[in-house]
Amino acid sequence: MLSRTFFAIIANFAFLCSNIAEAQSEAVSQDQERHFLQLALDCVDREYPNKISHVLQSDTDALTPRALHPAFYGCFDWHSAVHGHWLIVRLLRGGLDAEAEVAATTALDAHLNTAAIAGEVAYFQAEGRASFERPYGLAWLLQLGAELREWDDPRARRWSQALAPLEAVIADRYRSWLPNLAYPVRIGTHNQSAFGFALALDWARTAGDAELEGMLVDASLRFHREDRACPIRYEPSGEDFLSPCLMEADLMRRVLDQADFAAWLTGFLPDIPHDGSADWLEPGVVLDASDGKLVHLDGVNLSRAWNLEAIADSLPADDPRRDSLMAASARHAASGIASVTGDDYAGGHWLASFATYLVTGRALDIPR
């Protein structure tokens, strides 16, 4: 088992290097990548323990996770199973050694097939499930769909075709939800709307769904265009895995042009330093990594790291805030990557997906 200390050594090396982006890339060794992949492969078929989010209408709805969700029954909960599959696709797309490629392909064939996805569609269409996994799990499903759509590979096309009916159901869920959402959801956990909007917007642009793209852009501007002075000093909350302030900024970089975004960010986060310092934003601290709620803060370090890097990348090259944003990103990445050990399933079933989103540059690789 690779330890926190091992990952901390690698990640802190990245933090100390002068070229932060290059250092973060170098820090992702083949051993780390294989470790992330193995965590996902181990959990996508692991049915128990399992925390189902399931409304029962009668005794007949009392079923096992595998019966309820033929594709996404592993990894403790539905959304983690979904992004575990995304992790496998992302790393397979990037290139794996022969043995890992076979293992990844076999797992995806077993789960992303027509019969399994038909079972997932049937679950969504049953009574009382209109808000199931909204928006967090829905957003990750669309991220999985976008990854497959972008990849020019016969296996990806096969899996994408199988997934398409579920993508359509979930896109329709967004279309039904957005007109009725009166306010944004500004929290640091699953129901946060900014994260749900961001990944759905990436999918809409990849899939060419102009209607959903327009709805998401309109809602983002309606909710956030006039936001000012986000209280980031109050973050993180004790169970956050997403930053309300930084994720909102990560969303707004997707809907504003560069000049407008730079000006908006000045009002929204007015205290970003201009001196290249990293200590203006402290990483979250986890005191008990076996606690499923408290370990969320390892995730907030990873998601903050990709937020900060993406925000910096979206600013003009001469913007004086870029260095401090990147320095804070590297500091959070060092802490977050060190946490992806798999020592406890409380974090082991999901943190590798966040780490993969960060270290493979997924936040920078989005459609415009």
Plain-language structure description:
The structure is a single chain. With 368 residues, the chain is mainly α. The protein has one domain. Helix content is 61%, strand content 0%. The chain contains 17 helices and no strands. The chain has helices at 4-16, 20-27, 30-44, 65-68, 78-94, 98-111, 114-125, 136-150, 154-177, 193-207, 210-224, 244-255, 258-268, 296-313, 322-338, 345-348, 351-359. Mean pLDDT is 94; it is low at 13-21 and 23-27.
Helix content: 55-70%
What is the number of E strands? 0
Rg estimate, integer Å:
20 Å
Uncertain segments:
13-21, 23-27
- Write down the overall geometry: globular
Kindly name the structural category. Answer: mainly alpha
User: Strand-residue fraction?
Assistant: under 5%
Series of H and E elements? HHHHHHHHHHHHHHHHH
Look at the structure and give the mean pLDDT.
94
Question: Number of helical segments?
Answer: 17
Largest sheet: none
Supply the number of structural domains: 1
Distance between the termini: 40 Å
Quaternary organisation:
single chain
